[in-house]
């Protein structure tokens, strides 16, 4: 008996350590790695709060209304902004449908063009019945996704019009077959769109994400907004707290203040985490709608191989915020066309 006791304890403690290890591992794998939280913990920063927008909705619309008034008085030449004849659109758009049906197929671009006679060249729209409160450039990084383009446009134009926005859709296509640089394309879209029209709000949007609810307003609130917070392929859950990918909204001023996106993320991943870091570094924080509003369907596509350098870039990001962005970007616009349903910018990107 005296010989057996220590053995029993040994077996018990081995079993217990196995159980503990299994628990720890399953915990670690059930949540996705949050790269920014990691960077922050290394830099010993205080965790930041995510602003729940359900509490803020009314002050946002009020403020955005004032913003539109002020910038109109600040001397833009656009007659619809200066005109006092039309009333300002209501803070809450009256035509919203709520939950939407999602079509993963769409008519051809030619057919779609025929169903949108209301659009001005370049896919421009502004409500006929009132003065829009928001001038929004929807910026889409693009390459080789013809099958998604028509589905996206088919879904989005009606949503944006029900939201009574003064908007345009910019498709920013990267030339050549080098590594895709999503962040640089978004920088290009922002800079080029401002040459076309005095926008006050940018929405950066993956072409494969379709909003499932039109109460998810494509506007820019006081704080940068992460919009695609509940995606079907991620079980409608945020994979990690600081995520800022998919669809995000920044005012033109906020975007300029953070020096836009980094130009150094070639290949998949990390550029949105770097923007999340910039936003926070400059004293902003992410705002989000409730999860039942910020729902999206993702269209299927082959996944790019992740960029193995992204963690290094992210970790050293802070050193480059002031020198790596819209103030240092190198690109050449090969073509810009005002098509019927969108503005197309074909661009060559250069490392800076
Ligand atoms: C990447 C991000 C991406 C996110 C969600 C992260 O690991 O760094 O760029 O948006 O995963 O897929
Ligand atoms: Mn995608």
List the helices and strands and how they pair.
Blueprint: H1 4-30, H2 35-42, E1 51-52, H3 57-73, H4 79-82, H5 109-114, E2 135-142, H6 146-162, E3 166-174, H7 182-196, E4 201-205, E5 209-211, E6 225-226, E7 230-231, E8 247-251, H8 252-257, H9 271-281, E9 287-288, E10 295-298, H10 310-315, H11 317-320, E11 330-338, E12 343-350
Parallel strand pairs: 1-9, 2-3, 2-4, 3-12, 7-10
Antiparallel strand pairs: 4-8, 5-10, 6-8, 11-12
The structure holds beta-D-glucopyranose and manganese (II) ion (MN).
Judged by helices, strands and strand pairing, the structural class is alpha/beta
CATH superfamily of the largest domain: Spore Coat Polysaccharide Biosynthesis Protein SpsA, Chain A
Number of discrete helical segments: 11
End-to-end distance: 75 Å
Helical content band: 25-40%
Percent strand? 15-25%
Remind me, CATH topology of the largest domain?
Spore Coat Polysaccharide Biosynthesis Protein SpsA, Chain A
> Which architecture of the largest domain per CATH?
Alpha-Beta Complex
Write out the distinct hetero groups bound to the structure. Answer: beta-D-glucopyranose, manganese (II) ion
Helix-strand topology string: HHEHHHEHEHEEEEEHHEEHHEE
Compute the gyration radius: what is it?
A: 23 Å
CATH class of the largest domain: Alpha Beta
- In the residues, how many domains can be counted? 2
């Amino acid at each position: 008996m005296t010989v057996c006791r220590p053995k029993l304890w040994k077996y018990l403690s081995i079993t217990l350590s196995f159980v503990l290890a299994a628990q720890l591992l399953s915990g670690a794998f059930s949540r996705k790695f949050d790269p920014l939280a990691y960077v922050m913990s290394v830099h010993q920063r205080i965790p930041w709060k995510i602003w729940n927008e359900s509490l803020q909705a009314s002050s946002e619309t009020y403020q955005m209304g004032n913003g539109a008034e002020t910038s109109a008085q600040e001397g833009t030449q656009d007659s619809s902004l200066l005109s006092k004849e039309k009333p300002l659109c209501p803070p809450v758009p009256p035509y919203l449908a709520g939950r939407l049906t999602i079509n993963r197929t769409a008519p051809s671009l030619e057919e779609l063009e025929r169903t949108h006679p209301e659009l001005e060249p370049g896919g421009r729209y502004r409500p006929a019945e009132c003065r829009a409160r928001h001038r929004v450039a929807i910026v889409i990084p693009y390459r080789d996704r013809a099958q998604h383009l028509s589905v996206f446009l088919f879904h989005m134009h009606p949503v944006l019009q029900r939201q009574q926005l003064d908007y345009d859709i910019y498709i920013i296509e990267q030339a050549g077959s080098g590594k895709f640089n999503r962040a640089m394309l978004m920088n290009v879209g922002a800079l080029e769109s401002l040459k076309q029209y005095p926008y006050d709000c940018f929405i950066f949007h993956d072409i494969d994400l379709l909003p499932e609810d039109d109460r998810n307003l494509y506007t820019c609130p006081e704080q940068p907004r992460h919009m695609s917070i509940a995606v079907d392929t991620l079980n409608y859950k945020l994979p990690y707290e600081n995520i800022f990918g998919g669809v995000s909204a920044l005012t033109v001023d906020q975007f300029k203040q953070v020096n836009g996106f980094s130009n150094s993320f070639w290949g998949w991943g990390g550029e949105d985490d770097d923007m999340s870091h910039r936003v926070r570094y400059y004293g902003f924080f992410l705002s989000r709608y409730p999860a039942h509003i910020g729902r999206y369907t993702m269209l299927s596509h082959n996944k790019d191989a992740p960029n193995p350098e992204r963690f290094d870039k992210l970790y050293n990001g802070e050193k480059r915020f002031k020198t790596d962005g819209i103030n240092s970007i190198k690109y050449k616009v090969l073509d810009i066309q005002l098509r019927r349903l969108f503005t197309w910018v074909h661009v060559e990107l250069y490392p800076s």
